[in-house]
Every structure is written in structure tokens, then in C-alpha cells.
Write a structure and sequence with these properties.
single chain, 189 residues, 7-stranded parallel β-sheet, 7 strands
């Protein structure tokens, strides 16, 4: 609901949820609502950066009743499907990008500032396409921000809240040795 509400005012939104709390499930349900209730018949592109994420996204999107196809090296491209899940590396190399999109979702959105992502997004900037980025880590180690890419950050509950509510198992940490951290330097970002 927060994402859809934000799209009434913004063209781009970043959603932060801790690892294991259901980002893929959230965007699969958003796709279902988007193409069946809000933008009926419109097309959606999901961009991921690893093969395993293509499979995970396709499986979850199909569980929500949407037909989806992959854009991935070694597979036939079916651009006629309403939902496309594309690997960034494959999207950069295909001659025809999906057209008539109303929504782009970027999984692991902390990668969005990279040139490869920006080059893909340039193709859709003036076409009234909404952008949703999902990530557990809405920060980059180089300190580069997201303000030029996402207009609003929506955060979910913390990991501890998910544990307290019984959605995640309690964390149990085991170590075989205690590392010597005395010579490690910490730099401020």
C-alpha cells in the first residue's frame, strides 16, 4: 500500500526490507495488482543481476498468477509476455528492449547507480514508467547516494521485529575461533 500510495506522487520509489523478509513476494504481489487492477494490460520489467534471482523472481511471479518470461543468455526471448524478468548483463546485450512498460522493478537496487543500470533506464525516462527498487541495503560502500534515482525511501520493520513476530528464526551465531581484530582499521564513510 505504501508503494502504490507513493506512486501517486512519485515516479520512483526504493523499498528497503531486511534479507529474508520477502522482497520478492512483495514485488510479485505488486505486479499482480499493477497489471490486473491499476494498469490493466500494462507491461512490467524486473531487472536482476544473477541467474538465481531470475529463477526466484519467475517462480514467485508465476505463483501470483502472472505470465512471465526471462531475458537471459541461453534462453529464447519472449518479449510478448506481459512480465519480463531480465538479467542486467543480458539486457545490455539484446537489440530490442521490452517496450510499452509502465513499471520497472530493480531487485538488489543498491546496484542502480552503476552505469549499466543507468544505461538501461535511459531508454525509459520520458515514457511515464514508474521505477521501484528493492534492496536490503539502501547504501553503497563508495558513499554514492540514490537521490537522483529514487524520490522516496520506504522502510519496513527491522529484523528484530520480524523475529519477534515469528516470521524469521532467531539468530544463532557460531564461531570456531575468535579472529584478531586489533590491527583492523575502520574508515568513516
Amino acid at each position: 500500500e505504501d508503494i502504490l500510495s507513493s506512486f501517486n506522487k512519485n515516479d520512483s520509489v526504493m523499498l528497503q526490507m531486511p534479507t529474508g523478509t520477502g522482497k520478492t513476494t512483495v514485488f510479485a504481489e505488486l505486479i499482480r495488482i499493477w497489471i490486473k487492477e491499476i494498469n490493466i494490460g500494462q507491461r512490467v520489467l524486473v531487472i536482476v543481476h544473477r541467474k538465481e534471482l531470475v529463477d526466484q523472481a519467475l517462480a514467485r511471479i508465476k505463483q501470483f498468477g502472472n505470465l512471465a518470461a526471462r531475458i537471459q543468455s541461453g534462453y529464447a526471448t519472449e518479449l510478448d509476455k506481459q512480465v519480463q524478468v531480465g538479467m542486467m548483463q543480458s539486457l545490455r546485450n539484446i537489440k530490442r528492449l521490452p517496450k510499452n512498460l509502465s513499471l520497472i522493478i530493480i531487485d538488489e537496487a543498491h546496484h542502480t547507480p552503476a552505469k549499466s543500470y543507468r544505461d538501461i533506464l535511459k531508454n525509459y525516462t520520458d515514457k511515464n514508467v514508474k521505477l521501484l527498487g528493492v534492496t536490503a541495503t539502501p547504501c553503497r560502500t563508495n558513499g554514492e547516494g540514490f537521490k537522483d534515482l529514487y524520490q522516496q525511501l520506504i522502510t519496513s520493520d527491522s529484523i528484530s521485529t520480524f523475529i519477534e513476530k515469528g516470521y524469521l528464526a532467531k539468530i544463532r551465531h557460531l564461531a570456531f575461533a575468535i579472529p584478531d581484530l586489533s590491527k583492523i582499521k575502520i574508515n568513516k564513510m
